Amino acid sequence: MTNRIIAVINQKGGTGKTTLALNLSAGLALRGSTHLVDADPQRSITQWVAMDGGNSGLPEVTRLGGNPTAVLADLARSHRYVVVDCPPTVQGETVAAIMRAAHLVLIPVLPSPIDLWASVDMAVAVKEAQRNNSNLRACLVLNQLESRNALSRDMREAVAEFDVPVLISGMQRRAAYRTAAVEGMSVYGVGKRGQQAVADIEAIIEEVLCL
Ligand SMILES: Nc1ncnc2c1ncn2[C@@H]1O[C@H](COP(=O)(O)OP(=O)(O)O)[C@@H](O)[C@H]1O
Ligand SMILES: [Mg+2]
Questions:
Q1: Which atom of ligand 1 is nearest to the CA of 197?
Q2: I need a labelling partner for 98 at 20 to 30 A (CA). Which of 34, 67, 122, 160 fits?
C-alpha cells in the first residue's frame, strides 16, 4: 500500500493544486478513508469545504499545524489516504517537512513550456527531499489540457527534459472544475455535469495507485 500521503505542490499559483487536491481526495474517499490537509495559509480548501455546510461528501479537512511531519504520519495511521494541498512555494520549512513525510508529490503544471520551466525549482526541491526520504516519488500532472492530443511538440520536448516524470493522465480544461468549486463540491458531487472531469480524476487515481 504505497502512495498513502500525497502532497500537491507547485511554487506557482493557479496551476491547479487546490483543484487537483480536492478532487483527488474526493475520488480516493470512494476507495478508503481519506483525509484532506489544508497547508495553504490562503485556506482555499477549508473555505471550499465549508461552503455547503458539510453535505458535499468531501473528506474531512484539517489545517496543518505545528509539526507537519508528525501530523501527517499521525493522519496516515488513521486513514488510508492523506492528501495535502500546499501553499505556492517551495521555500521554507513547511513544504520541506511535508515532502519528508509524503510518499508521492504531484506537481500540476499548465501545458506550456514557459509554465513548466517556471516550475523547475520544484524538481530541485524534490531531489533534495529524496535525500532524506528515499520512498518519495514525484510526478507532473498536466492541467487545463485543451484536448487529449493537444500537447504541443515544444511541450513534449520540455517535459522529456524535465527531471520529474509526467503522468499519462491529466486534467482537461473543463467548466465542471470551476462550477463544482463555486458550489463547494468536488466534480463527483455535481452529477452528469461532472462526468468527464470525474473520468480525468479516476484515470489519475488509477495511475497513481499503480506507481
Ligand atoms: N482543468 C481545469 N479546467 C478549468 N478550470 C480549472 C482547471 N483547473 C483549475 N481551474 C481553475 O483555475 C483556477 C486556479 O486553480 P487552483 O486549483 O485554485 O490553483 P492553485 O491552487 O494552484 O492556485 C481556479 O479558478 C480553478 O477553478
Ligand atoms: Mg491553491
A1: 1
A2: 160
Q: Residue of the nearest CA to atom 20 in ligand 1?
A: 14
Which fold is adopted by the domain 5-209? Answer: Rossmann fold (3.40.50)
For the chain, 211 residues long, give each residue's pLDDT as a single digit of tens. 567 999 999 999 999 999 999 999 999 999 999 999 999 989 988 888 887 665 567 898 998 878 898 999 999 999 999 999 999 998 888 999 999 999 999 999 999 988 888 888 889 999 999 999 998 999 999 999 987 666 777 888 888 888 899 999 999 999 999 999 988 899 999 999 999 999 999 999 999 999 8
Is the beta carbon of 16 within 6 A of some atom in ligand 1? yes
In b/e form, how buried is each residue of 59-94, taking b as 16+ CB within 10 angstroms? bebeebeeebeebbeebbeebebbbbbbbbbbeeeb
Model confidence, pTM: 0.96
**Is any atom of ligand 1 closer than 6 Å to the C-beta of 12?**
no
Domain spans, the chain: 5-209
Which residue in this structure is represented by grid cell 507537519? 68
Cα–Cα dist 105/126, whole Å: 8
